[in-house]
UniProtKB/TrEMBL annotation:
<dbReference type="Pfam" id="PF01243">
    <property type="entry name" value="PNPOx_N"/>
</dbReference>
<dbReference type="InterPro" id="IPR011576">
    <property type="entry name" value="Pyridox_Oxase_N"/>
</dbReference>
<protein>
    <submittedName>
        <fullName>Pyridoxamine 5'-phosphate oxidase family protein</fullName>
    </submittedName>
</protein>
<feature type="domain" description="Pyridoxamine 5'-phosphate oxidase N-terminal">
    <location>
        <begin position="7"/>
        <end position="133"/>
    </location>
</feature>
<dbReference type="InterPro" id="IPR012349">
    <property type="entry name" value="Split_barrel_FMN-bd"/>
</dbReference>
Amino acid sequence: MDERELLEEYVARARLLQLATVSASGAPSVCTVWYVPELRPDRLRFVSRRDRLHPGNIRCDPAVAGAILDNPPEELGLTARGVSFTGRVRQLPGEGIEAEIAAFVNRWPRAAGVLGAMPEGASRMYEIAVEQWVLFDEQNFPKAPRREIAGR
């Protein structure tokens, strides 16, 4: 498998991502969100309440970074794999995104009620357009585990 295939497999299998945003004052913040990937083009979608910290930060500055870590090793010295990324995020409209909602509910059935309440509800779906990936894979690339991969 090549590095792009490994990246796609990893991103598709993992469930949570940690998202870094920056406030209008420049203060960084990190949150953890459930996500749904779409690859080629590289998009990560998540749902959040509009009154939380990270949506406010996104309204000020759409540049984000994040990390996806699935099955971390038990201790230092064991083989590690993970993915980080940079990109730009936008809030999707509350209507006209039926395919995106269906994909999210298919992966996370308990989100159906929240997403079904849009556009009047308190939550919205957000979409990250990934510009750059970094695959860190000591298992498949032990001599040079850090692999930069352009978003598509």
